[in-house]
Amino acid sequence: MMQGLIQGLRSCWQEKIKVAILRNSGGNSNSKSMLSRMGCFTVTSSHQAMEMEEKGLENMTVADVLMTKGEESVGSWVSCRINDNVDDAMKNMAQHNIGSLVVLKPGDQQHIAGIITERDYLRKIIGQGRSPKYTRVGEIMTDEKKLITVKSDTRILQAMQLMTDNHIRHVPVIDGRIVGMLSIVDVVRAVVEEQNGELKRLNDFIKGDYY
């Protein structure tokens, strides 16, 4: 599913480029030649398509994406405790409109015991007919020993691949201690914003704003 989404974003981006070039060049032969070289009129291999995508994203890190979530989000996250009941944890998620919570160790504000997600609730509470009011977070969370994590200096494309390969939507960002949470929504938003920036620069180039 994730690979299909990224492919869709890439196709949409190429279509926007095509429209921009044709609109600003009158559809002449030079514009068609440019489109052909960029892969908008010819079929490129998946490797070439990925290279095109990486040109604008290869230097972006997880820390950059966390910054785009707002300065107040860097170094802050919504959390719960191992002994909290699952019902309260789900209400916490709903209140903040998020899909996961960091589970902190007792008496510790910086080191995590695991994470709990909507998927944990569906599979281990609803799927097993358990009561969320009488089940502790620690009973259904993903334990720290099984967690897949990234660092703040991890390349965003590496994080994207990690999430895709492991079929996960949330990864803690750990630099010795918890510094944030990265979601697949954050990653997709970063890809879209970067591609929109590339499109703007291309438009400026076509219009002659670059010399």
TrEMBL record:
Q: Taxonomically, which superkingdom? A: Eukaryota
Q: Which residues form the CBS domain?
A: 67-133, 141-199
Q: Name one Pfam family in it.
A: CBS
Keywords from the UniProt entry: CBS domain
Does the entry feature the keyword Metal-binding, yes or no? Answer: no
The protein's matches in Gene3D superfamilies, at most eight in alphabetical order, are given as:
CBS-domain
What name does UniProt use for this protein?
CBS domain-containing protein
In its UniProt entry, the species of origin is given as Hibiscus sabdariffa
